[in-house]
Amino acid sequence: MNVSKSKAFFFDLDNTLFDYEASFKQASLFAFKSIFYPVLKKPVNAEKWFDTYKIYCDLYWPAYEDKTVTREQYQRNRLVSSLISFNIQPINMNQIDYFRKLCEEKIPSFVIPYPWIKEIIDLLYNRGFVAGIISNGGSALQRKKLSMLGLSFSQNNIFISSELSFAKPSLEIFEYVKSRIHAASFYYIGDSFSFDIHPAVTAGWTGIWWNPSKKLLAQTNPFIYNCCSENELRSVVKKCIE
């Protein structure tokens, strides 16, 4: 294909290709039951514990996003707070760290691609366009998720932050990908406006925001598509490849 007419579509991974929250819940419940059930002094409803745990995940997220705490501190804080809420004490830091490790190991076991994703990727390949991944996270974990998803991406088109010297929301990762991929137009599909869409558009890409929670867009931008349903996402991708 003539480079002047070629297009490249890159995807975020978690909550874009699959429902990360559902996978995270199943992995968290598995780790909680495996580690804490044997030592509980009285029964705890795991589903109720997870609801509380998720509240702390959201509560402490801004501090991690602002880099006030490290990823490790964020993960420890949310779990410790949830255990204290259910009076699961004393707190054993070895158990806390093992929970983090076990949960991460198990998440790939529960990943299932959104049913429309393979259709979209096949459509891109059938038109001769580039399809790839730009994701933050640890290399081994993210690649294991991709393997479990069973989606076909060229290794040359997979960019993971831990394998590079920069991560989203830095513009550098989008600029780096543009320098490595031969295409005239670049599109990024992601679920986070601040981590995915805003930096991509600032770096000269077109952003396709997967926004099923229907968050409000502060202002319209001709280089941002807001997709609140799978049908809208399909339609936008088809429009972009014309």
Automatic annotation (TrEMBL):
One Pfam family per UniProt: HAD_2
Q: Which InterPro entries match?
A: HAD-like_sf, HAD-SF_hydro_IA, HAD_2, HAD_sf, PGP-like_dom2, Pyrimidine_5'-ntase_YjjG
Q: Which SUPFAM superfamilies match?
A: HAD-like
**Superkingdom of source:** Bacteria
Name of this chain's protein:
HAD family hydrolase
